[in-house]
Amino acid sequence: MTNKTIIASEKAPKAIGPYSVGVRVDDLVFTAGQLGLDPQTGELAPGGVEAETRQALTNLKHVLAAANSSLDLAVKTTVFLRDMNDFARMNAIYGEFFTEKPPARSTVQVAGLPKGGAVEIEVVALVKG
User: Fold this and answer.
1) What is the three-state SS of the chain?
2) Model pLDDT for residues 31-68, shown as the tens digit of each residue
3) Which fold has domain 4-126?
4) Domain boundaries, the chain
5) Are 124 and 29 in contact (CB under 8 A)?
C-alpha cells in the first residue's frame, strides 16, 4: 500500500497556489520547485542568482527536514535558470550544498520564473531509514 503525505515547513515559503511544497510517498519525498524567496518577506533574496540559489537550497533543506529527509539524501534535482549565462555562478553555490555524492541533476533555461526569479530548484530525495 502506498502512503501519500503532504509536507509543509514553517521555515520555507508557503505554496502560492493549488500545490504542495512537498509530498512524501513511501520512502521518497518530492518537492515543488523553490525560488530564492525569503520565507519571512516573500521577496527574492537580494544579490542575484548566487543569493537566490543559496536561499532556494536553504528552503529545500527545510522542506526535506519536515519530511524526515535531507539534501544528503537527494537523488535527483532539476534546476531552472532564467539565463544559462548564470550557470557557473549557480553551480558554485550549488556545489557548497552538495559536496559529496551529489544527486543526478538536470539544468534547463526557461523563458521566465515566478516573481522574476533567476533560479528555481526542485528535489527528489530518499527519506531517512
Assistant:
1) CCCEEEECCCCCCCCCCCCCCEEEECCEEEECCEECECCCCCCECCCCHHHHHHHHHHHHHHHHHHCCCCHHHEEEEEEEECCHHHHHHHHHHHHHHCCCCCCEEEEEECCCCHHHCCEEEEEEEECCC
2) 999 999 999 999 999 999 999 999 999 999 999 999 99
3) 60s Ribosomal Protein L30; Chain: A; (3.30.1330)
4) 4-126
5) yes
pLDDT(4) > 70 = yes
- Residues linked to residue 125 through DSSP beta bridges, in sequence order: 29, 74
Q: Model-level pTM greater than 0.85?
A: yes
In tens, the pLDDT along 76-97 reads 999 999 999 999 999 999 999 9
